Amino acid sequence: MIKKIGIASEGKDVNAQVCAFAGRAPYYLIIEDGELVKVIKNPFLLGGGGAGLGVAQMLFNENVNLVISGKFGEKMIDMLEEKKIEYKVVENKKVSEVLE
Description:
With 100 residues, this protein is of the alpha/beta class.
């Protein structure tokens, strides 16, 4: 099965750092077959609670199989597990390093 990966990112390209916080990441980079296919500006970056739930639903709607970020909130983890989306914690790396 082809993996479609959503990576929480500080910037709009693979040279950006992986964001420390999944729900409040400025961008999500959608990677398919090792290629950047889409950049999503996180609509849940600012505002009240529930960012992780919104992001999890957004990534589910993008048919993402795996989410990579520095940290995940408990509610976001519950939603990802419910949607059968894998998640992986990666800290202090650039997106390009994660893809290698």
